Amino acid sequence: MLTKLNDIELRVIGCLVEKELTTPDNYPLTLNSLVAACNQKTNRDPVVDYDESDVESALDSLREKNLAYVFYGSTGRVPKYKHILPSFYELGPAETALITVLMLRGAQTPGELNQRSGRLFEFEGLGEVNETLDSLANREAPLVRKLGRLPGQKEVRFIHLLSETEFDDDEYQEQAARTVEVAAGGLASEILRMREDLDALRAEFEEFKSQFE
What we know:
Layout: H1 7-22, E1 29-30, H2 31-38, H3 52-64, E2 68-71, E3 80-83, H4 85-89, H5 93-105, H6 110-116, H7 126-137, E4 144-147, E5 157-160, H8 169-210
Helix pairs in contact: 1-2, 1-3, 1-5, 6-7
């Protein structure tokens, strides 16, 4: 049975893995660095605003679940934090990269995962991404699940299964459809406004031209 994590724990463990792979010189992370990583406005979905107490509570819980621990080093006095996600879930480098991006950015297509995981692991192509996703999905205790296609998308999407909150695919589809409708409505309004502006310019031009006839 999988060890499930809440939203803050997922963000914290995802950030620890990401920073170890992308900025190893600054790893392990202090509490302040980890809070900043959790609240980044790039490469995160959703964007959050956790404070130190939120992150510290999540770290305590992750330590109890044997997914993180405190590291002081030989000379450092400030506590720093490390993860043990790959060994805990028996993940290889490619699997770790995909799980991390899914934890940090939610449901994604294989193409999106291929594009967004490059800083964590260099896949040879989309085929290797799909093979890795299949290996994660076909475990005795699956770590990812395939979802349906969103409106306008050709690729299926995948989510991780480490969240303690059950993912509702139907609700997600409905939200996506509403988003598409809102975007389409906004585009239609913009087109209408542009047509009105063009009509006004034409009228002004005709009036200007009539002065010389």
